[in-house]
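As a representative case, we now present a protein record of this kind.
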Amino acid sequence: MTRFRAPLALRPHPDVAMPDTAMVMAAGLGKRMRPLTATRPKPLVSVAGRTLLDRTLDHLREAGVARAVVNVHYLADAIEAHLGARGQGLEILISDERDALLETGGGVAKALPLIDRDTFFIVNSDNLWVDGAVDTLKLIADRWDDSAMDALLLLVPCARATCHAGQGDFHMDTVGRLRRRAHGRVAPFVYTGVQLVSKRLIVDPPAGAFSTNIFWDRAIAAGRLYGVVHPGLWFDVGTPQAVKRTEALLQQE
């Protein structure tokens, strides 16, 4: 069995400087979630009585984030109507991808003109997490070191990646620096869909649709991609079966 020792999670300082802007990724087609996504976008799928999108926005608001840029493509009208009706207590800006789905990297690049901060969160709206003893987003912000990092990823050990069937994504050294899982091997940590990034990561983007992996690979090559371990619960809510299992586990908690 491969053993690893993750860097200790620091308790956030009470005066941690919180980034006040986040991008919420909500444009995907949700193909694995069919038939639940036949008539609604994946972010509006409910888990234990609350939509995935609402759970994400709640985390942002509770951590002190004031502005959320939400990208839309599939059933975009439904997401916009939901955001308008909910009164989330956040300033909501829409990055419209109706004409073409741009994937994760392309979506972030398109949204940059709406993001007027050098450092901001990027949060996938199709995963679900529960804070541990501390607020997860504040923990990430507290771990951020602008002199050393271009991106800081929230990770969870494979053993605690509930409903996730992959082989892991990253290895982490003793200071939190990341490297990728080698092809055909396993890695101890899974990316949760939550990260804090600097705008200097999003430079010279390709045209059209592309993955955030392009930016991460640059950061890895420069030694500037880091991770922090999530101390709470995390669920990969990607299929109808995962929704049912997640609801059962949340009820137990």
Q: What stands out?
A: The chain has one domain: 21-252. Confidence is low (pLDDT under 50) at residues 1-10. Residues 33 and 238 are 6 Å apart (CA to CA).
